[in-house]
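Please, is this right?
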Amino acid sequence: MADASGTADLITAYVGIATAAGTAIWAVSKYLADRRDAREKAGEDAERSRRQQHDEEVRARQDRAAALIRAVGEATDPSTRRWTISALSLYPEEALTLLLMSLGEASAEDSASIALAVLSMGPAALPETVRTHRIARQVCATAAPPDASEPGPAREHVDVAQATHVLEGTRGIIVNLLLQLDEEGRAAVDLAGVDLSGANLARARLSRIRLRKTRLDGADLAHARLTGAVLRGAGLEGTVLTRAALPGADLTGAAGRVQAIRADLSDAILDQARLGGAALDAARLAGATLRQTDLTGASLPGAVLTHATLDRATLSRVTAHHLAAGGMQVAGSDLSHADLAHARLSGSRFERSRLVRVAGADLRADRAVLVDTSLAGASLPRATLVSATITRCNLGGADLSRSDLSGAALTRCDLSGTVLSSATLAGSVLDGCHVARCDLTGATLTGATFRGCAFERELGLTGVDLTGVTFEACTFAEGLVIRAGESWTSAVLDDAAREAFGRISATAVGGGS
């Protein structure tokens, strides 16, 4: 009985202790919860008070801005009005849009004060200024011209005039706000569709800036840095990019007679750009892509197009003497009447292109590849085409006098009327070519091979040493006149060739007319 009584007392004690502990835990939890609720309520009260204070400050600023705006409207003294306009810069959020729109009716003096007020707000004013500028440009672009035959006020004309003033006023503000930013800040700005005609951005650092469809006509960007800039569809009429750096820039669809003398356009994209008449003297376009690009009549003397890609590009009548374009890839492009004198085109490839009547005296095109390309009437005296591969090309009427075609391979080419007098064709192979009225007078043909060629009308070989020259599987038209010296007897001739050369008259053999 004593043991049972002791156990019951122990149990009772444990229950009491547990009850007390639970009560204590509940009390602590409630205390902590009350503290948390109190802190949350205090925080909410503080936030409510802060918002209320902020709202009161905003209303106060709005009231002060409204008072200044009324003062601008009521001011009769120009000096007072301009000072009041300047004071509005203290309230950018409340007054910025009003200041910008007021440019539409502001006098020249007031416009200057407005511009100063906006500029004093700093780069934060740039997005709203750009937005207002775009709206003004859109109004100017879409509004119909006034009809003078209709009576009454020309309301639409007035709107256009005001929009024009806003457009012109915001242009200068945008340029100045842009220059307040560092280069990273400028790269983050989107100036698509902005009119920056005539802007002075010389030497500005504008790498990666976005100028899509931006109008830059007459703008000065000389020595500017535009690495990786986006100028897709930009207007570049008269834009000055002299010595500007635009490596990797995207000028797809850009248009205008740009002045980019000595500019760096390495690896730039000029696809579908319309740059006829552009000045690109000594410009660097190494690795650039020019797909469907129009450079008609452009000036490119001394320009660098090494490893550039020209696909269906138009470069007719370009002035490109002393062009450096080794490894250039040209397909479906038109370079007719181009001046390529002293150009360096070693290792370049021309396919399905037109080089009709190009002027290329002293041109160097070692190891060049020309396929399905027309050089009809081209003037290429003293050109160097050593080891060139020329396939299915039209060389009719071309002047290659005194040129060096040593080791060249001419396959199925048209040599009608081609002048190769005093040219060097040592070791060259002419396979399946059409040869008519071809002048090889005084040429060097050491080790040359004529294979499967069709000779017609007249072949001038006067003064040519034919020793070791091979004629095989060639055809010789009836009535063909061959003018050659006695050395033909030392040539390597098949039966058809021997018969054709054997018909040479004694006068012709002696080299007479």
